[in-house]
Automatic annotation (TrEMBL):
Native source species: Teredinibacter turnerae (strain ATCC 39867 / T7901)
Signal sequence region: 1-29
Keyword annotations: Coiled coil, Lipoprotein, Signal
Protein name: Lipoprotein
Cross-referenced PROSITE patterns: PROKAR_LIPOPROTEIN (PS51257)
Coiled-coil residue windows: 130-182
Taxonomy, superkingdom: Bacteria
Amino acid sequence: MHSKTALRGVNAFLSALLFALGCSFAVNASAQHVYYRYVNKEGVKVLEHSIPPEYAQLGYEVLNASGQVVKVVPPAPTDEEVAKNAQEREAREIYARLKRRYSSAAEIESAKRRRLANIDTNIAILKGNISSVTNEIQKIMGKAADYERRNQKVPAPILQSLSDAKAELGIAQELLQSRQEEYQEVIEKYDSDKDAFVRGETLEAKEDARIQ
């Protein structure tokens, strides 16, 4: 009698345990069950257990078993958007470097004017040297011509002085050309930096406005 009662108790306990485990399994399975909602090529919203790769690129929503949206996946960026994002990222990096040197676009303009003024001074000095050496060459050539008119051989020192003066003139002219090219390069560089600074400021302002 006691053994039958005990057996019925064990059976009841096992039944309750199995029922509880079954409920727990059902709850877990339900909790892990998700749906994907996306728009197909006909423009119709579709709700399925999986999503085709071609539609995943267009963005979708993840819903739980209760129909609640638990995640929103935005569309993959287009090639144009990828390129634009890369350009903006590069612009921000350049802006960050410029900010370590300048506080404003006006400061960049001031730095450009100072640099150009320095180059202008060098150009003026070189032009003065070129004028002076040119005059010296003309004088030396005049002396050489005097000897030639007298049918005399031009002395070696005069010829050497003429050669040295022409070499000096050539160097001065090369330096002048280099400084003139540098002048234009400085204009282009500082103008480019100023444009990059202004663009970076604009992107930063847009980002701040978006966050706020």
